[in-house]
Amino acid sequence: MRFQAIQCAVAGALFVSALLAQRNAGPASEANPLGHDPQAVAQGHELYNHNCTVCHGLNGAAGDRGPALGAGRSHVIRTDKALFEAIQNGIPGTAMPPFSLPATDIWKVVAYIRSLRATASDAFVPGDAARGEQIFWGQGRCGNCHMIRGRGGISGPDLSNVGGERTLESIRDSLTKPKQPIPGGYQPVEVVTADGRRLSGIAKNDNNFSLQLLDSHDRLQLFTAGELRQVLYAKQSLMPSNYDRVLKPSEFQDLLAFLSRQVVHKVERRRRSEEDDEQ
Amino acid sequence: MNGYAASLCLAGALLSSAAAQVTYQDLLKADPANWLTYSGSYNSQRHSLLKQINTANARALVPKWIYHVPGAGRLESVPLVVDGVMYLSQPNEVFALDGRTGRLIWQHRREPAMRRGPNRGVAVLGNRVYYTTPDAYLVALDARTGSLLWQSKIAEAKEGYWAPAAPLVLNRKIITGVAPGDYGMNGLLAAFDASTGERLWRWNAIPRPGEPGGDTWAGDSWKTAGGDTWLTGSYDPELNVIYWGIGNPAPDFNGDLRKGDNLYTECMVALDADTGKMKWYFQFTPHDLLDWDAVEIPVLVDAEYQGRRRKLLIQANRNGFYYVLDRVTGQFLHGTPFVHSVNWAKGLTPEGRPILVPGVEPSLQGTKVCPSTSGATNWMSPAYNPDTGLFYVAALEGCGINTKSYEEFRPGGFPFDATGYIESPQEPRQLYVRALELTTGKLVWEFKQIGSRAYGAGLLSTAGGLIFAGCDQGIFTALDARSGKPLWHFNTGQAISASPMTYSFKGRQYVAVEAGSNVIVFGLFEDSEESTFGRTQ
To answer: Is A241 on the interface with B (CB under 8 A)?
Structure first.
């Protein structure tokens, strides 16, 4: 998959000059012919500041009139081509206007938006993803705690889209550094009930008055404060943080390659009237 | 401390698998502590055996918690509750909440976020939660985390289909329907394997030429015919038959090009649950011109009818008539109007076919039609209480002015109505709760929702002798099931257009209703001291 994308990008680059000549023709390639070229990203940043910040805000953080194009939102428009088209044609039925910029400029803005998003799936992580997958389900025991596309355990976050949501850095950190504070919904706890039973698991949610526990038998247990004598919060997450040490460097790299490719391919978005249809 | 070693021990403990949460036996039994299906039980009576909250103490009902669904417009789903966990949905989103406190356990959001609504609710089986989507998929989630397990396409969204109804779970099968008939999309029911999502059968609501019923459509009109399935059906496990109401024909208001009865639009159909083969049908409004979808919830009751115990199917239909059918054979037994404003039919023949009043149909200049196209009732669920023997329905009096035009079908999901209607300014809608004698449809009492000139909420009946009702004014009311006398009410602050439900957990009964963008849960006032946790960090 990635290989093809890289080849595409290389081939695409050969057509840049052709593109230059074709103002406002649709995108001639699926992938950005400028690739991830840092200079294109920098120029795209300038073009972005010039044209887009009124609505989308500085640096792709959410603005007043448009959604965040960078982090913080699960993006509907993901492919280079679809981004190109959204910018060139606008998004009909919304406040997103069309821009009559030259095609290369649009590609530069696309490169910039991609750099903002730059999740692991955009990062071309080298390694043998197939072997990484074996490690995930095998010696890494990741599948005991994590689900990918409907398979696996439930005490850790679902990783089906981890490559599309997280940066490579943050995935690497997850595997090598304990997260502090422990992320909400994954705090390991032990509770003692009013009648003296001891249960352990993960607090999916809690506050002064109640606690929602996913217990060690994968059952949801609901408690109000009066029903618990004691709540003990563990200091460490269930997520092991020494994979860089227990796996060989090549295994670790293969695992990263596998994780970075975990992207849920979104069904193409259709736009229609947004009002409720009463039948 | 070595995090790895410690975690691995825990991981071992976490591995032991839990017993399946909801079994088919649970669904059959319909334990009143839980609310496991859209209509509360397979017979869709929406009658709960819980009676901690009853006619004697209803006045002590107080709100226990409110969950605001971010970004929701008007919620129209029925929450389910399994062992204290509430599953709540709106289009593309499912929430798992603690049923006693309203605290969020997990939230699932599906992209693309096409915000077509409403979504009417989820279904549960095993450790899975199922729901259908604005792009016509059936989706299975892990009930404990909201993780996506699989999704199966019910119909082609590109053609214009979507799926609003709560799925119906049978033994190892999920039955789903589609919308919108108003766009000329032909309706269907599809069954999926509950564990794999594989499609098991599909039943087409519109027969093709040459098939039985195919001759009830003139020319090519069957191709863009409607007949959708946007509410949930009922199930008789003894007969292994599902009962489903079918929507209107298209174009809605002009029948010139679709001469004929237009089967199986406006029908109740009985299908073999294993094969999807039709056992019988009964058509309420042949060749409908008024968009009176017959999707209203079929209520299954076993009762004495004219000296004989029979398996009955009851439907208060959008066309203004209350129908009693034999659900083994589909035979029409009885039909009578349950609203005063009925001007389109003089009555029903012994076979149950309407005796039409000539000329009461959409016209170029506009014709007064009663009930209006909104219907004498609509998606608002009815209820039946075996203790009182009464059938309860949210009824709308009122008339509409219907016009017609000529419209070309456009593929891809566009309205195909051939014009429409307005509510008649002289006879505006008025919402009632009505209690009808089961087998005769005779009015026993009514409660007028003063000020309510729009659709309202469905009804909930409880063994505590209560009927819970809501209206577009946002007022949630408990009525005495025998007299219709209001015993308690609460102003939720937003229009109520969903049906209430009830459940209990750790000995306490709760009643939940969605009002606008909130779900609000009520219980009896408890005079107890506040306590907080003893914690150790």
So the answer is: yes
Q: Which two tokens stand for residue B497?
A: 């257009």
Nearest CA in chain A to B149: A150
pLDDT tens digits for B483-520? 999 999 999 999 999 999 999 999 999 999 999 999 99
Pinpoint the alpha helices (H) of A90-242.
103-117, 129-137, 142-145, 162-165, 168-176
User: Model-level pTM?
Assistant: 0.83
| B47 and B438 Cβ atoms separated by less than 8 Å | no
User: Is residue A23 located within the same domain as residue A69?
Assistant: yes
Q: Which of residues 91-110 of A touch B (CB under 8 A)?
A: none
- Using a CB-CB cut-off of 8 Å, the residues of chain A touching B117 are 276-277
Q: What are phi and psi of B196, to 5 degrees?
A: -105, -20
Q: What is the pLDDT of residues B269-301, one digit of tens each?
A: 999 999 999 999 999 999 999 999 999 999 999
Strands of A121-261 (E only): list them: 147-148, 151-152, 187-193, 198-206, 210-215, 220-224, 228-233
A277 touches chain B (CB under 8 A): yes
Partner B contacted by A195 (CB < 8 A): no
B261 tagged catalytic: no
CB distance A272–B413 less than 8 Å? yes
The CA-CA-CA angle for residues A19, A23, A27, to 5°, reads 55
User: What fold does the segment set B31-69+448-537 form as a domain?
Assistant: Thrombin, subunit H (2.40.10)
Contact flag A208-B533 (C-beta cutoff 8 Å):
yes
Residue type, B272: D
Residue of chain A whose alpha carbon sits nearest to that of B13: A216
Place of tokens 């976050």: A157
Tens digits of residue pLDDT in B17-58: 345 589 999 999 989 999 999 999 999 999 999 999 999 999
- Say yes or no: A45 and A151 in one domain: no
Domain that holds residue A154: 129-179+243-278
pLDDT digits (tens, 9 = 90+) for B421-462: 999 999 999 999 999 999 999 999 999 999 998 888 999 999
How many domains does chain A contain in total?
3
Distance from CA of B480 to the nearest CA of A (A): 30
A238 belongs to a structural domain:
no
Residues in B closer than 8 angstroms to A241, CB to CB, are: 3-4
Average predicted confidence (pLDDT) for chain B: 94
Decide if domain B188-225+231-378+390-437 falls under CATH 3.40.190.10: no
* pLDDT over 60 at A85, yes or no: yes
- The b/e string for B195-204 (b: 16+ C-beta within 10 A; e otherwise) is eebeebbebe
The answer to whether residue B14 scores a pLDDT higher than 80 is no
Apex B497 CA angle, B492 and B500, nearest 5? 75
Q: Are residues A273 and A140 in the same domain?
A: yes
Task: Let me know whether A150 and A51 are in one domain.
Answer: no
Residue B153 pLDDT class (50, 70, 90 cuts): very high
In chain B, CATH 2.140.10.10 sits at 188-225+231-378+390-437
Residues of B in Cβ contact (< 8 Å) with A136: none
- Nearest residue in B to A264, CA atom: B111
Query: Looking at residue A273, which CATH number applies to its domain?
Result: 1.10.760.10
Looking at the structure, tell me whether residues A193 and A171 fall in a common domain: no
- Measured in angstroms, the CA of A161 and the nearest CA of chain B are apart by 11
User: B446, B434 in Cβ contact below 8 A?
Assistant: yes
A24 inside 8 A of chain B by CB = no
Say if A80 falls within a structural domain.
yes
Shortest distance between the Cα of B373 and any Cα of chain A, in A, equals 10
The answer to whether the CB atoms of A279 and B149 lie below 8 A apart is: no
Whether A9 and A74 share a structural domain = yes
Please, how many CA atoms are within 13 Å of residue B426, restricted to the half-sphere of its CB?
5
> Does residue A26 sit in the same domain as residue A102?
yes
Do A63 and A46 lie in one domain? The reply is: yes
Q: Please pick, among B291, B293, B417, B472, the residue that the annotation labels catalytic.
A: B291
CATH number at residue A214: 2.30.30.100
